[in-house]
Amino acid sequence: MNKLLFIILTMGVSIFSFGKDYKIIDVTFYEGKSGKPFAQSNVPVEQLPDTFEIDTTMHLSKDDWRVVGAEPPQKTQFKQSGKLSLFLSKVEITNIDPKELLYSLPTISDDIAGVENAKSLENVVILREDDWRQFEFVGREYESSIESEFKSISDIYKNHHVGMGFKELHVRKIIPAPLIKDHLTLEIIKSSFTIEKIYSGVAFNNAAATIVGGFALHTKSGWLLWGQIDNSDVILVLNISQTWGSSS
User: Could you give the angle at the alpha carbon of 206 between the alpha carbons of 203 and 212, nearest 5°?
Assistant: First the structure.
């Protein structure tokens, strides 16, 4: 989690960049999605994170604020425009009865990709940890195991679905290595799709760290192919996620 301390500047700073990246960013702070700002500051670009897509907490005056939105979210964007709008929510501690909590998903994978510290998050795609292996490619040899998993997930929908959430969730465990016999390489994927963008890595939104061996490719049709490879570029896990421009 990014932890940032901002000092409101009281002296004017020139922010003209003459076509180059801005060194000082004009940051406007909003509470929630309100259209009226409550603070504004000129902030050196190096004091800002590479992306606000990672869960970020800021300390303003005596209070902690959680960043719930940023326009634009990435440093590569706001250092070109020189402007950044941050939408904040004051961090408050509330007591909730554990019995009232619901899961947002009916199922998750039992495993999670290992991560490592990242020097930079520029050109890194940010996803939720729960996205890991939610929509994935699996070898044909696991057909019976897939049916078993679907049966368990169906039971969650039928018997534990409450409102917008679930009282229970199914943890998938019986397919630990979904592509172990396929020897699928990253080059095969690149040659099989029209790739518009190749990311430097993948990070989850709860930490400024990247997946070990992580990769992500954005196709021309708008799909995101991402996952993890071993040292020989053989794919261990291949996920697919929909983006705004995805086509069926």
Answer: 30
